[in-house]
Amino acid sequence: MKKSILFVLVAFAAIVLSGCSGKIDLVMVSYDKRKPLTLDDKLQIAFSNVIPVAPENGVLIATIKTDPEVVCSGEAAMNFLIKTSRELGANFLFVKKAEEAKVVVGAGVYYRVKQCTTLYADFMEVKEEK
Amino acid sequence: MKKLSIIFALLLVIPVFAQKSSKKDFSAFEQSLMNDSPAETAAESSDESDTTSVSEKGSSADFERSLMDRPSELNEVFIARDNLLEAIQQKKGDLVRIRIKELEDLNSESVVAIENEEKEYAFFKLRMFKDLLNDLVKRYKTAYEPSKFNENTKHASNSEDALFIVVKKDLDSRDSVHNIYYQYSDQIDRARMSEQEKMKLKLMLLLRSAYSEKDVMKTATNLAKRYVKEYPDDPDSPWIEKSVLGPLERTNIYEYKFKMRKENKEAVVKNKFYTGGFGIRMGVPLYGFGFQFGFNDFYRKDLFEPEIYMIDMEAFLQINRFVLSLGFVNAGLEGVGGFGFDFGYVLYESRYFKVSPFVGAAFSEASFETKEKIPYYGKFKEEIVSDGSGLNTFTLGINGDLKFGTPYFLLSDEKLVSFLLSVKASLSYIDIDSRYSRGNGLVGSISWSLGVFFW
To answer: Which of A49, B82, B152, B429 could serve as B29's disulfide partner, Cβ 3.0–4.6 Å?
Structure first.
């Protein structure tokens, strides 16, 4: 009987703590509830090499550093940013910085070194001026 | 005869005029129509000591071709651009300012009369650093405003006129490794500007490579911090803090994460009410605070001593408002306890309190220590005996948690852990029919426990 209780405790702990490893790379700033963007909603994307400042009327929702072990190529990282932006209900994506680095990727006994891109970006909500 | 003398006189005058006239007397546009490359002319006139020229045959031919390609409807723009180049070459700052304004006024939906790089070239060339600062601030502050230009807008610079060629040559000659600020830092330091203006100009110039060069980012971040701190009354300070410093600081995502963890703590806690989590509680029943009906003689008191379950232990999983709890619990009857499960509902949750009524059931066992040897049961003295009779306990109760501490869980910025002081009040119907005991009735009990809740 006591062993079964211990098992239940361990199982619960494993379930909950597995979620606590956390997305260290996504920092939420605003916790206001926002509806995710639909495909019809416009998402504006700005790059710091063109405009090195964020929009003054933007409300910051979150900031992110993509994980090269999850999304390696620049294109995959960019797609991930767009997807996350839509999920967060952020209609403005400010892509600030790109870093190139070699990352070991693989599973089991198969590993290889790949050149990956890490993107830094801010998710914002910008109200369109009427 | 009279006509012939006039023609003769003209023939004498023209060569004299041609010799006396320096190239400087022509506008850049007029010079461009001559054999010499306008870039060459511009270089010559802008800096007498500078003997370099761009007289490659190819570029000269391209330039001449570009003149042919100039859209006639943009003549006014090209004349204004030539006038600007002329003013730059003559080093007339006030005139340059006027010419740039003229060109900016010519910007329209159909044409970009002057590019930012061309304005910058003029400002750097004539050390017009205040104008450069104003232009950069205005440009960055209005960068996201709806533009009058569209994809069909023509760029006058595409015609590769004299101004374009001169600016391109200047851009090509620049140090592409280091930020342009470092090329002009000495001159900016010596410029007749306040320290505040110099600091702001340095920041605006560094910005263009702040996200691509690590050292520049560090310098720009520190500079923006200093500026906001030293000049809080500057109307641009709030903008610098929000739109310049903010994005820069956030690139150090770990430092920013810990800053935001602190700032967002209460919002995170509030946001997680009624969302759920996992927890455990360990405690003891307070037998003295309960009551019981129907259990006066449910075991032989002359033979057995009830074994007191000192510690209750339960684990609970909350999903939204619903709580499932499993564990080893004591219904409040001495000597009776066992594995039980509860279904609860979170009625109220706040920063410090949580109240959840529940219903539950348990497989309670009665456990006793023999007082003496009992041959009938085959038991020796002081032997523990226990026996149960299936699902025999049904409980209705209410649980109150005091969350007396709620830090973040490890490095997470969204998971929390709360330390609990819990009190549980319950009313149970117990029906025991085992080898050593028999009885049924109601038991009311209060227990307290300490717990931890991950949510």
So the answer is: B82
